[in-house]
Write a structure and sequence with these properties.
It is built from eight helices and 55 strands. By secondary structure, it is an alpha+beta fold.
Length: 756
C-alpha cells in the first residue's frame, strides 16, 4: 500500500474540531437575566447571572460522545489517513461526524436554551461547520453525509440525559398539566425543574407563578426550566419555610431579621427598602398585595395591615405604626393567628378546626376593633360529605387557599383518593373538578392568566401542575343528603373565657388554679409554679431533663412522670415548695406505653392514677395495680376521693379505687365520632352520647363536667346528665382540670372557664 502525506485540509479540519472540545469546560450559555440578591434590610442588589459550561448544557453523556468522536477522528487522521484508500475515507467520515456533532450541539443550545448562548456554543457552531466543509472537500456524497449526520445528532443531543430537552414533558393527569418537576438539586437558572425543599410556597408573579424556598425565588419558563428571580442567602430567621412571603407588582416582602419584615423591589434599579421592625408574626402576601402582621407588643388577637405598594424609598418603622385591622378576637370563634390567614382587600380567609373537621371563615373588622367572622364552608356533620352547598359540606382537613379574579376561593376538599380541587363561589355554591388530583397538594395559586397552579407530591415525584381554563373543568356536586345536619342549633349558652395569667412563650404553661397559678418549664427540666402576679417558685427538677406535662395536686404542688431511656420504667414525682418526693420506679403496665400514658388529675393530695390505653393503674406502691379497665382518655378525682374517668368511650364514676358504674354510655355507639352537637340535634339523650374528643373536669362547686367538642355536660349529685353550655371556641382548646374549676390555655393565655 502506497503511503502519502495527510491532506492539509484534513489536518486543518481535525484542528478545527478539536477547538470546541477544548471549550467544553467554558461557559456555553449565560442566563439573560441576573437575579437580585435580597439580604439584610437594604434594597435589592444585582446578583451574578447563571453560567453553564458545555459539559452541563449538553449533558455528561453527550459531551463524552463528542470528546470520543474528536479523539477517534484525530487518531485516525494522524495515524492512518496517510495510507490513503479506506483509511482516508474513514478519516474524512470521522472528522465530518465530529464536526457535525458540534454543529448540532451549538444549534441545540441556541434552540433549546434560548437567548444567552455564550462564546463556547458559538465556537462549536463555527468550528464544527468549518470542519464539516473541509472534511467533505469537493465530494458531494461526503457533504451530503455530513449534513445527514448534523441532522441526526441534532435530534439525538437534546434527549440525552442532562441535555437541553430534559425539562418538562407536558405530562397530564386528567385536566391537570405538569409544568415542571419540583426535585431540582439547586436553585439555578436553566435547571430542569424547580427545587422545592423544604416547604415550598407557590408565589403568583406578574408573568406567571414561581416557587419560593429557603434559597430564593424562581419562576418557570414554558420548557419547565427555572428562571431565578431572587436569592436569599440568609436563612429565614423566624420560620422553617421560605423567608419570602410573597410578591405583588414587582415588590417582594420577606423576613429580613428575627422580628423584621422588609419590602424591596425585584429589580435592582428599584430603590425601595421599607422595613417594619418589632414584628412577631406575619401572613403571606394576599392577592390584593397586602399582608397581615402582629407587633411584638400587640395582644395575641391583633392584626395590622401592610400594603406592599403603599410606601416608597427607604423607610424603617415599628410595627405598632401600621394600621390596625382589629385588636379583639372574634367573640364566637377562635383567636386570629395572622400566620394562618390569606389576606384580602376586605378581610382575610382562614381554616379553623372545629368539633369535627374544619370550617372556612372570612374575617373582617367590626365595631370596637373586634374581628367578625362569616362561615363560608364546612359543616359539623361528617355524613353530609362533599355537596353543592359550601356551608353544608363537611371538610375533614385544612387546605392551601387561593382566590381568583372573580372572588372564587379554590381549595382541596376530601380525603386521600376522594380529595378534589373545588371552587367556592361568592354566592356559597361549591363545584369540584371531577378528576382526581395528581397527588397531595401542598400549595395553590391562581396565575395572572387565570390558570390554577398546584404544588403536588404526586406518585411520580413532587411537581408543579396547572389547571388550564379552570371554570370549564368544574363539575356540579350533589345537593346535601337527607338527614345532613351541618349547623345544629345551639342547645345552651356559651361560656365566658376569663384571662387570669399570661404564660407567654413558656413551653409548659399548664394552668394549676383558678387564681391564675400555672406551671412553667425551664431548660434542664426545672419546674416552677408561677403566681398570677408573676412570682416564680421553683418546686423541683425533672431528672430526665424533659419539659413534660405536670398535674396539680390540689394544694399548690404538682405531679409528673419521669421515664428512663426507652420509656420504662416510670417514676412518679410529687413536687411542692418544700421539696420533691420520688416514688419507686415501676414497669410500664401498658404494652404501647409512650405518649398515650398520662396521670389522672387528683385534687385530693393522693398519688394520681396512671392512665394508659389498657386501663388506669395505681403505681405508688412499687408495682402497678389495675383500677379501671379499658382505654383511658381523661379523668379527674375530687378532693373527697370521688372521681370520673373516660374509659372506652364511657364516663365511669369512681369512689377511691372502686368503680361505681357508667354515668354516660352510648352502648354500641361508643366509637361514634359524630360531634356531640349533631348527636343532640338527632335526639340522642345526654346520658347516651358518644363522647369523641372529650375532657373531664370540675366546676367551681366540684360538680363533674365533660367537655366533648364544643358542648359542656354536667353530672348532678343524682347522676343525671345535663347540657350546661355550648361554645364552639372550646373545640380544640387545651382544657385542664385545676384547683377551683375548669381552666384553659390558648396562645400563651391562661384562661378561667366560667359556665353560664
Amino acid at each position: 500500500m502506497a503511503i502519502g502525506r495527510t491532506p492539509p485540509a484534513l489536518l486543518t479540519a481535525v484542528a478545527l474540531v478539536a477547538v470546541p472540545a477544548v471549550t467544553l469546560p467554558l461557559p456555553w450559555w449565560t442566563a439573560p437575566r441576573r437575579p437580585v440578591v435580597l439580604s439584610g434590610t437594604g434594597p435589592a442588589v444585582p446578583g451574578d447571572a447563571a453560567r453553564w459550561s458545555g459539559w452541563e448544557v449538553i449533558g455528561t453523556a453527550g459531551a463524552a460522545v463528542l470528546v470520543a468522536l474528536v479523539v477517534a477522528a484525530a487518531a485516525v487522521v494522524l495515524l492512518y489517513a496517510r495510507r490513503g484508500g479506506r483509511w482516508a475515507v474513514a478519516a474524512r467520515v470521522l472528522v465530518a461526524v465530529a464536526g457535525a456533532a458540534f454543529v448540532a450541539a451549538g444549534v441545540s443550545v441556541l434552540a433549546g436554551w434560548g437567548s444567552g448562548a455564550a462564546l463556547g456554543a458559538v465556537i462549536a457552531l463555527i468550528a464544527g461547520t468549518g470542519a464539516v466543509l473541509l472534511a467533505a472537500g469537493r465530494t458531494p456524497r461526503f457533504l451530503l453525509g455530513a449534513l445527514l449526520a448534523v441532522a441526526l445528532i441534532a435530534v439525538a443531543v437534546p434527549v440525552l440525559p442532562g441535555g437541553p430537552g430534559s425539562g418538562s414533558d407536558d405530562r397530564t393527569a386528567g385536566p391537570f398539566v405538569r409544568i415542571a418537576e419540583l426535585d431540582a438539586p439547586q436553585l439555578r437558572t436553566g435547571t430542569a425543574g424547580l427545587p422545592a425543599s423544604p416547604e415550598p410556597r407557590i408565589v403568583p408573579l406578574d408573568g406567571g407563578v414561581g416557587i419560593a424556598n429557603r434559597a430564593g425565588l424562581a419562576g418557570v419558563d414554558p420548557r419547565g426550566r427555572a428562571e431565578v428571580l431572587a436569592l436569599t442567602p440568609d436563612a429565614p430567621p423566624t420560620t422553617p419555610g421560605p423567608s419570602i412571603l410573597g410578591v405583588d407588582e414587582g415588590r417582594v416582602a420577606r423576613w429580613s431579621g428575627a422580628e423584621e419584615v422588609t419590602v424591596t423591589g425585584l429589580d435592582a434599579t428599584d430603590p425601595v427598602a421599607v422595613t417594619v421592625h418589632g414584628v412577631s408574626a406575619a401572613s403571606v402576601v394576599g392577592p390584593d398585595g397586602t399582608m397581615w402582621l402582629r407587633s411584638t407588643g400587640d395582644p395575641p388577637g391583633t392584626a395590622r395591615v401592610l400594603d406592599l405598594a403603599e410606601r416608597n424609598g427607604t423607610q424603617s418603622a415599628a410595627g405598632t405604626f401600621l394600621p390596625v385591622v382589629f385588636i379583639l378576637g372574634p367573640a364566637d370563634s377562635v383567636p386570629v393567628d395572622v400566620t394562618a390567614v390569606l389576606p384580602l382587600r376586605d378581610g382575610a380567609l382562614r381554616f379553623v378546626p372545629q368539633a369535627a373537621g374544619v370550617r372556612l371563615e372570612r374575617i373582617s373588622s367590626g365595631p370596637a376593633a373586634r374581628a367578625e367572622v362569616d362561615v363560608l364552608a364546612g359543616g359539623l356533620d361528617p355524613s353530609c360529605g362533599l355537596t353543592a352547598s359550601g356551608p353544608a359540606t363537611f371538610l375533614p382537613h385544612q387546605s392551601p387557599l387561593a382566590v381568583d379574579a372573580a372572588g372564587g376561593v379554590w381549595f382541596v376538599a376530601g380525603d386521600g383518593a376522594t380529595a378534589r380541587l373545588v371552587r367556592l363561589d361568592p354566592s356559597g355554591a361549591l363545584r369540584a373538578v371531577p378528576s382526581p388530583l395528581p397527588g397531595p397538594v401542598g400549595s395553590i395559586a391562581v396565575a395572572p392568566s387565570g390558570d390554577v397552579v398546584l404544588a403536588s407530591l404526586d406518585p411520580g415525584g413532587p411537581a408543579l401542575w396547572r389547571l388550564p381554563e379552570p371554570d370549564s373543568a368544574l363539575g356540579d356536586l350533589p345537593a346535601p343528603p337527607a338527614g345532613c345536619t351541618p349547623s345544629p342549633a345551639a342547645v345552651a349558652r356559651p361560656v365566658t373565657l376569663v384571662p387570669v395569667a399570661r404564660a407567654g412563650r413558656d413551653s409548659l404553661g399548664v394552668p394549676l388554679g383558678v387564681d391564675g397559678r400555672w406551671a412553667a418549664g425551664a431548660p434542664g427540666g426545672e419546674v416552677a409554679v408561677v403566681a398570677a402576679d408573676g412570682t416564680r417558685t421553683p418546686v423541683g427538677t425533672r431528672s430526665d431533663g424533659m419539659r413534660g406535662p405536670v398535674w396539680p395536686d390540689g394544694s399548690g404542688g404538682v405531679w409528673w412522670l419521669e421515664s428512663a431511656p426507652g420509656g420504662t420504667p416510670r417514676t412518679l414525682v410529687h413536687a411542692t415548695a418544700a421539696g420533691e418526693q420520688r416514688f419507686a420506679p415501676v414497669a410500664d403496665p401498658a404494652p404501647t406505653g409512650g405518649a398515650d400514658t398520662f396521670l389522672v388529675t387528683d385534687l385530693g393530695g393522693r398519688p394520681p392514677l396512671l392512665a394508659t390505653p389498657t386501663g388506669a393503674f395505681r403505681i405508688d406502691g412499687g408495682a402497678p395495680v389495675s383500677t379501671v379497665e379499658g382505654r383511658i382518655d381523661g379523668g379527674v378525682v375530687r378532693s373527697d376521693g370521688r372521681g370520673w374517668v373516660l374509659a372506652d368511650g364511657r364516663l365511669l364514676a369512681l369512689d377511691g379505687d372502686r368503680v361505681l358504674g357508667p354515668v354516660i354510655d352510648a352502648g354500641e355507639r361508643r366509637g361514634d365520632t359524630t360531634p356531640v352537637a349533631v348527636q343532640l340535634a338527632r335526639g340522642v339523650a345526654p346520658a347516651a352520647l358518644a363522647l369523641p374528643r372529650a375532657t373531664v373536669g370540675l366546676d367551681g362547686s366540684g360538680r363533674p363536667l365533660v367537655v366533648s367538642d364544643d358542648v359542656v355536660l354536667a353530672v348532678g349529685a343524682d347522676g343525671a346528665v345535663t347540657v350546661v353550655a355550648q361554645d364552639r371556641r372550646l373545640a380544640g382548646l387545651g382544657l385542664f382540670a385545676a384547683e377551683g374549676g375548669l381552666m384553659a390555655y390558648d396562645t400563651g393565655d391562661v384562661l378561667r372557664v366560667d359556665l353560664p
